[in-house]
Design a protein that fits this description.
Blueprint (H helix, E strand, L loop, with lengths): L9 H24 L3 H21 L3 H22 L5 H25 L4 E3 L3 E5 H21 L5 H28 L15 H21 L9
Antiparallel strand pairs: 1-2
Helix pairs in contact: 2-3, 3-4, 3-7, 4-5, 4-6, 4-7, 5-6, 6-7
Length: 226
């Protein structure tokens, strides 16, 4: 089987935009609503991702264990972050905005500029220009978030946002490596234009764990440090 391609074909771009336009407001509304809607969303997503992972790896025991950690840790991280009574809602909004902007920046800069490949043996369509675009876009979200929440450490949050944006792109590469290992293009087809749920949230999985770890070490949401 031919190696999977990462960039969508032009014909699939409209489907991607429409799917994102429909799903993003729903997700944001559920994050805003909190308990029990957010827990239901995360549980449903975990079940779908578990199904996709089992299908991807063919039920191999070792890979199932990897999948349990790969899916379970981010789900725990998301629930833990949202449960923060001080800034849980704001942290999730910021995290989602960082990941989504990093994805958009990577795609836009990669397509417009091109240039040297970031990891040609893992994801041949990803470029260093796209990576720079991803962290730059994430940093802009950090600045906007700091201004919106009237935080004083604007540049500090921009830096943290850029770091989380980079972590999310690392998650994208991990997912690409796994799919290349199993010679598949997508983990599923549940989201038109995006493939499977794992294809859509690969960056969020690693970014959520990263933010949760920083929150534990810093004894509170990153937003409360500013």
């Amino acid at each position: 089987m031919a190696p999977p391609e990462d960039n969508p074909k032009p014909g699939g771009l409209n489907a991607r935009v429409i799917s994102a336009a429909i799903l993003a407001p729903v997700v944001l509304a559920i994050v805003y609503g909190g308990t029990p809607f957010f827990e239901i969303l995360v549980t449903a997503a975990a079940l779908i991702m578990a199904y996709e992972w089992n299908r991807l790896c063919g039920g191999r025991p070792g890979w199932l264990l990897v999948g349990a950690l790969y899916i379970g840790l981010p789900c725990w991280a998301l629930l833990s972050l949202r449960a923060d009574s001080v800034a849980g809602r704001e942290t999730l909004f910021w995290l989602l905005a960082v990941v989504w902007s990093a994805d958009t920046g990577a795609y836009a800069f990669g397509r417009l500029i091109g240039g040297p490949k970031l990891a040609p043996f893992i994801s041949p369509n990803k470029t260093w220009a796209g990576f720079v675009g991803s962290i730059g876009s994430a940093a802009i979200v950090g600045v906007a978030t700091a201004l919106a929440l009237d935080l004083t450490a604007v540049l500090t949050l921009a830096g943290w946002s850029a770091l989380i944006g980079a972590v999310s792109q690392g998650g994208d590469l991990v997912e690409s490596w796994v799919k290349r290992h199993f010679s598949v293009k997508d983990t599923g087809s549940i989201i038109p234009g995006h493939g499977g749920l794992l294809d859509r949230v690969d960056g969020l999985l690693t970014a959520a764990v990263g933010v949760a770890i920083f929150s534990i070490v810093g004894e509170g949401s990153i937003l409360t440090w500013m």
